[in-house]
Amino acid sequence: MLEEEAVSLHDAPTRSLNMIEAINEALDVMMARDPDVVILGEDVGYFGGVFRATAGLQGKYGKNRVFDSPINECGIIGAAVGMAAYGLRPVPEIQFADYIYPGLDQLVSEAARLRYRSAGEFVAPITVRSPFGGGIFGGQTHSQSPEALFTHVAGLKTVIPSTPHDAKGLLIAAIEDNDPVIFFEPKRIYNGPFDGYYDNPSKSWKNHAGGKVPEGYYSIPLGKARVVREGAAMTVLAYGTMIHVVEAVLAEKGVDAEIIDLRTLVPLDIETVQKSVEKTGKCLIVHEATRTSGFGAELSALVQERCFYHLEAPIERVTGFDTPYPHSLEWAYFPGPVRIGEAVDRLMKD
Amino acid sequence: MGESPVRSGKPRGNLPPLELYVPEPKYRPGDKVDYSELDIPEPGELARPDEACAASETWPLTTDMIRVLGDDDKAVGPWNPNLDPESLRRMLRNMALTRAFDDRMYRGQRQGKTSFYMKCTGEEAISVACALALAGDDMVFPSYRQQGILISRGYPLVDMINQIYSNRADRLKGRQLPIMYSARDYGFFTISGNLATQFPQAVGWAMASAIKGDTRIATSFIGEGSSAEGDFHAAMTFAAVYNAPVVLNVVNNQWAISSFSGFAGAERTTFAARAAGYGIAGLRVDGNDALAVYAAMEWAANRARGNLGPTLIEHFTYRAEGHSTSDDPSAYRSAHEREEWPLGDPIMRLRNHLIAIGEWSEDRHADMDRELAEEVKAATKEAEKNGILGHGLHHPFHTMFEDVFEELPWHLDEQAEQAIRERQMKWPEWKE
């Protein structure tokens, strides 16, 4: 991963940015490079989005290319499909991933299958950006992690960054991609990495390597995982906010684990996963989404199918619970250091 | 004070119990049909407002019905598009060809050459007249009963049949249900089985055209039944909000499989009248009157092209045949409905008009029908050389895995290998 990034960065100077700023830069870079890139969504125009991810872009590129939409996700995604059929590259924003469901049919039945059903005549190079995940007291309608729904659909790519650096490079790659991409932004780490200790003071991206973001254009290829940290004791597969929680737990426990940030769930970088589990013999899978039929189940099955004879312990899965996200008890729901720590201990015992 | 009805669950004694209303069509199998209550205005009565008029001025046109061809086969009134005889004959020919095509493909399905077919009998005027009123490069987001648009735009019949047979020459590689064509070069968007999804997409395409300063407009067709889908309302809202250069068509053919139009709200108001709530222009047109359909689409297309905004058109028509080859309408509606449909047959009406103005004859029509049947037959024979469904002449196995993504990811590559291995085991003699 390191060489590939070094190549794509062209030694551009880096600055410390938070994830929102990095996303804003990615959009800015792509709008400047490609006049066919347009942004639509609730509040994305003059106001710049409720999380300010599109701030300043309407002023810079005009109302024809960055505009507010009605509160209608079916219309947002449906219009984006039509725009893509025309030849544009729409980047719709769904204000919270929890609200993607009214647009689901347009995503899974239309955008995802356009290339297939038309045998390549029509394509849908759409990047749907949406903040997801909990930990901000958003209650059950501002906290969900619906990524597994999309990984189950043939024809969609699902991308989740865990740092500002990756957010910019992956978003640029997603917008350049000729397939529909669901780009989930872990909103808990928009402003700083989060280690799962919710009552500690917030940290800033300024002091984090992943907050160093190169200026200008660079892309991180979809389908390539990032080895966050090399190690021998076990392989931890995670993405988004969970990368930071896992790092904190392992540092605390002093376990020499290899952490893999999947970055793209579909297409999955199976090679990096397989190589790592074969080396370590143990596998821990962590995600914030509900457990049953979550993406962890797919990862677990793949690791079992491909690495069974290398495994020295049962695969462990740490996830959110199979309930909606409870407002007052969100820290009891969140797969934090205690839940992950127990799984690490079980794996180390075997 | 007695116990609260909320707690006890018992209704209050002094109020009538509420009743659920479930719509019921007027006629069921065996019933005699009486269309006298249907309000069908005389042709030529409605005014034709300027294309630049305020949307609200079209209100009378949404509750009434635009008609040009009368019972005397004359074309009258301000909506008469005054087409020259050559154009009228072309329109007639395309409608007749659409019907000949439908008849042949229906028989093909019954002969087991394909799994499924959908005729548009009785609705030929809508697709054909709209196609002729649009520019050839305007984009159409069709539903499954607009084969007349492809035919009018000169898309090869052989390619349509290849698609219906899902054979090795099917441009869609055998992936789509028969009749779900896609023809980008002919401005014909790939058809979805999920209803009404194309409506917001058409609006998005039109918005993109406006964003780029293009001159092309978009149009889309749905049935009255699927106007109940949320997508309809999304499309109407977006079209209104962005003043999109789009013409949205609701083909009110009275039946959504076995559900009559009442289940989409037809008993309350017309489908065209819905335009008013969104502040867009609306027209309600006799869908069996090719000249009225042409005039309405021409009006709406000019309006869209002039940046004057979107239009909703309701085409009032009748689905003469079943919903599809898998449907039996005699099980749920009266056979008299079709026989006595007061707006007649669109092909006959245009034919009679051409005869009435001295530009056509019964003999010429019979000759044309024979010629068209031959044309379709020849195309069918040509397509059959590429195979019929289930007889082995299909696209290679590997194509099943192509076009899911632009590039084949590892998991699809592995699955493609599996499919080919299975094929070798099941059919060792197979070559492709």
Task: Predict the CATH topology of the largest domain in chain B.
Answer: Rossmann fold
Distance between the termini of chain A: 31 Å
Low-pLDDT parts of chain A are none
- How much of the polypeptide of chain A forms β-strand, as a percent range? 15-25%
Shape of chain A: globular
CATH class of the largest domain in chain A: Alpha Beta
CATH architecture of the largest domain in chain A: 3-Layer(aba) Sandwich
Report the structural category of chain A: alpha/beta
The average pLDDT of chain A is 96
Q: Percentage of helical residues of chain B?
A: 25-40%
- State the name of the first-level CATH class of the largest domain in chain B: Alpha Beta
Total discrete domains of chain B:
2
- Percent helix of chain A, as a range, is 25-40%
Question: How many beta-strand runs of chain A?
Answer: 14
CATH superfamily of the largest domain in chain A, please? Thiamin diphosphate (ThDP)-binding fold, Pyr/PP domains
